[in-house]
Design brief:
Elements: H1 16-19, E1 32-35, E2 45-48, E3 53-58, H2 71-82, E4 87-92, H3 110-125, E5 134-137, H4 148-162, E6 166-169, E7 192-193, H5 196-202
Parallel strand pairs: 3-4, 3-5, 5-6
Antiparallel strand pairs: 1-2, 2-4, 6-7
């Protein structure tokens, strides 16, 4: 479990560009993308390298790292493979590590959010030629935990439009239309189109 010791506004945050600089060699960089490459109070990206990744969007990171995936990431990995993707990339609406969403920042750290959006642009740019970025909305009802999370999603959708992102979901959406979290999906769950603009209009 990761419990934040302070609000991220009190931390010195690496920019996404700074976080891209290697500092450790404790995992296979030919297989994994892990940014930053060490355990910190925030995480921009965790996933595997490939030409056609399934880009999963959760709310915020927990404790997972290369070779030490938590149950949510194990589910993401299975569903990506089961739907014909050659890799997966786990991104999050907000980059602060907190196993319990109740522990997330009370107010949005605009510096952390800005760098997280830079990470999202990078993620979308990793898709190989001939493939459309497949973005799996998977944040569940946790989106309601903080008012700023909805604004973060709106910005992500706008960025996705510039890359021609195809939005997907899996499992049954909530009564309010929130896309299902990956954790309790069937192993053979299939992704399907997610009408993200209609979803945003309903928020």
């Amino acid at each position: 479990m990761h419990v934040p010791t302070c609000q991220t506004q009190q931390l010195k945050i690496l920019t996404f560009a700074q976080a891209m600089v290697p500092t450790q060699e404790n995992f296979d960089r030919e297989k994994w993308l892990y940014i930053p490459d060490h355990y910190a109070d925030y995480r921009y990206l965790l996933g595997t390298r490939g030409e056609n990744p399934l880009i999963c969007i959760g709310i915020n990171p927990s404790t997972a790292a290369p070779g030490d995936l938590d149950n949510t990431l194990k589910s993401v990995e299975r569903i990506a493979a089961g739907n014909g993707y050659d890799s997966f990339l786990m991104f999050n609406v907000y980059a602060q590590r907190a196993t319990r969403p109740e522990d997330m920042d009370q107010e949005c750290n605009q510096d952390l959010h800005r760098e997280n959006m830079e990470a999202f642009r990078f993620v979308l740019s990793q898709v190989g030629k001939g493939f459309v970025p497949a973005v799996w909305a998977a944040w569940g009802t946790i989106i309601e935990k903080r008012p700023y999370l909805q604004d973060c999603v709106r910005e992500m959708v706008a960025i996705g439009e510039t890359y021609g992102a195809q939005w997907l979901c899996a499992g049954k959406n909530s009564k309010k239309g929130h896309p299902h979290h990956p954790l309790y999906l069937r192993k053979d769950e299939k992704v399907r189109p997610f009408e993200v603009m209609e979803y945003l209009a309903s928020l």
